Amino acid sequence: MAARKRASSDAAITATKRPSEAAADPQIAPSKAGQILTYSLFFLLPYLYLIFYHYSIESELRKSILINAAISFAGFFLTLAMIPVASLYVLKRNLFGYDINKKGTPQGSIKVPESLGIVVGIVFLILTILFQYFNFTADSNWLVEYNAALASICFMILLGFVDDVLDIPWRVKLLLPSVAALPLLMAYAGHTTIIIPKPLVPYVGLEILDLGWVYKLYMGLLAVFCTNSINIHAGLNGLEVGQTVVIASAILIHNVMQIGALTDPEYKQAHAFSIYLTQPLLATSLALLSFNWYPSSVFVGDTYTYFAGMTMAVVGILGHFSETLLLFFIPQVLNFLLSLPQLSGYIPCPRHRLPRFDPQTGLLTGTNDGTVVNLFLRQFGRMSEKSLCILLLVFQ
């Protein structure tokens, strides 16, 4: 969860302001779009190099990828324009919080609009639905799974927004992705086999093992893990969106490498399918990061973390690389293992497992809570919130 403190109910007068008073509402800080786009070139340039120069990709497939990229690029600017507008609406409905990691400073008393992940989710759905017109025909074999994927993502956006509004308990949060993943699991028609690592083949006696329904159970658990792992590896400005941007970039590069190396048309289409969902995710997330980067002028809310986690789970499952996807989630796996004692109730778990902020120095100090954020502070010493976030994203 983000480093924030929810608004209390006694702030309800905001929702009943007269128009003249509403006009005096504070505007959010301008976006850092130029800075974010410059940093994103670190990932985008290798990706474009692989598509245009390194691999010989069929012209039709490359055309579909580029059309999807163009639509995603338009989505970046649409998200960039919608976030300031949506911020005013959520502020009027008292969906705001205070940045705990700035408590005791002037920035710590500013009302920061929450749940702006809803904007990213809506724009993402618009982009992916529009893309169907350019790529899928009515009798396309992939259309059923594509729409099932969008149904699961849409369901997760809804449940995430409900969580932001109602503040659902943790035990219920663990079940939400299971419900949202049902449309995808019911429509999944791909393989249910895994390749046995070569050193283990003599002991297992098989090179390929068909898991059947167990594989679908694994996919459901993967969806639960991805959504909740993004949600608990949080607490710093830009960390939730930043880790999504890094993982999404890795997924794109992995998919292009697989398309260039494989000869089976079905597997190529599976990886292209993954690209069609990941490019809009990356573009809209970069727009959100432009406002969420330190110092954050908006909070993403559980809406975004659930949406991002489910989308990446979907592309891993339908792209037939769900096992590889876990490699991109190694920091989240570590954070989950560190969090287990507190999440299970074995060790007391506070409302916010955040570092201690010193308003005099502006530095964060790690606590004994089981998170990667606190682990890094204990290992590398006190540092600013921005420096810590950059270090964590480099680790990612």
TrEMBL record:
Keywords: Endoplasmic reticulum, Glycosyltransferase, Magnesium, Membrane, Metal-binding, Transferase, Transmembrane, Transmembrane helix. It catalyses: a di-trans,poly-cis-dolichyl phosphate + UDP-N-acetyl-alpha-D-glucosamine = an N-acetyl-alpha-D-glucosaminyl-diphospho-di-trans,poly-cis-dolichol + UMP. InterPro entries: Glycosyl_transferase_4 (IPR000715), GPT (IPR033895). It is found in: Endoplasmic reticulum membrane. It is a multi-pass membrane protein. GO terms for molecular function: glycosyltransferase activity; metal ion binding; UDP-N-acetylglucosamine-dolichyl-phosphate N-acetylglucosaminephosphotransferase activity. Its cofactor is Mg(2+). GO terms for cellular component: endoplasmic reticulum membrane. One of its GO terms (biological process) is dolichol-linked oligosaccharide biosynthetic process. It is an enzyme of class 2 (transferase). Pfam families: Glycos_transf_4. It comes from the Eukaryota. Pathway: Protein modification; protein glycosylation. Its EC number is 2.7.8.15. The chain crosses the membrane at residues 36-55, 67-91, 112-134, 146-162, 174-197, 217-234, 241-261, 273-291, 303-321. UDP-N-acetylglucosamine--dolichyl-phosphate N-acetylglucosaminephosphotransferase that operates in the biosynthetic pathway of dolichol-linked oligosaccharides, the glycan precursors employed in protein asparagine (N)-glycosylation. The assembly of dolichol-linked oligosaccharides begins on the cytosolic side of the endoplasmic reticulum membrane and finishes in its lumen. The sequential addition of sugars to dolichol pyrophosphate produces dolichol-linked oligosaccharides containing fourteen sugars, including two GlcNAcs, nine mannoses and three glucoses. PANTHER family: UDP-N-ACETYLGLUCOSAMINE--DOLICHYL-PHOSPHATE N-ACETYLGLUCOSAMINEPHOSPHOTRANSFERASE (PTHR10571:SF0). Belongs to the glycosyltransferase 4 family. This is UDP-N-acetylglucosamine--dolichyl-phosphate N-acetylglucosaminephosphotransferase.
